[in-house]
Amino acid sequence: MKPENTAVFCIDEKTAIQALDRTQPALPLQPNRPERQTVEYVRLGTVSLLAALEVHSGKVVGRCVPRHTSEEFAHFLEEAVATHRRKTIHVILDNLAVHKAPVVQAWARKHPKVTFHFTSTYASWLNQIEIWLGMITRDCIRRGVFHSVSDLAHKIMTYIRL
Fold this sequence. Notes:
By secondary structure, the protein is of the alpha/beta class. The chain has one domain (6-161): 2-Layer Sandwich (Nucleotidyltransferase, domain 5). The chain has four helices and five strands, in the order E-E-E-H-E-H-E-H-H. The protein has helices at 70-81, 102-110, 129-141, 149-161; strands spanning 6-22, 41-54, 60-65, 88-93, 114-118. Strands 3-2-1-4-5 form a five-stranded mixed sheet. A hairpin with a 5-residue loop joins strand 2 (41-54) and strand 3 (60-65). The longest helix has 13 residues, at 129-141.
């Protein structure tokens, strides 16, 4: 049961997602043969995904950033908790150095209603957002064909909005 005036967020990131474009189009499905892709590809760049799962509603907020920095993470925290300013907020994170950087600590001091909870070392899989990151990897990223970094970011954000 959800306590009144409380929000819980599970936040994590998926870094260095590669925008890979195949050198040749996929071979179509045929009887008794799955769709096939060539093994050759072109790397077009990377993007990092910052994602927050609001535990009680199941809603996911995400942002694609070119580089995964503590400043970007602090901006994302602001965005993730924006709709719950009047509530007590609990944020579940893993022990990544970015989550404990001075910029993020300064952000936390400015937001006294936000409490960070860190998963045990080597147990980031306890964070529920990890399940969702596995789903987006399976459904959208793996075996994907992306013609540019912006195409990759657009497809990720479309998946989040669905």
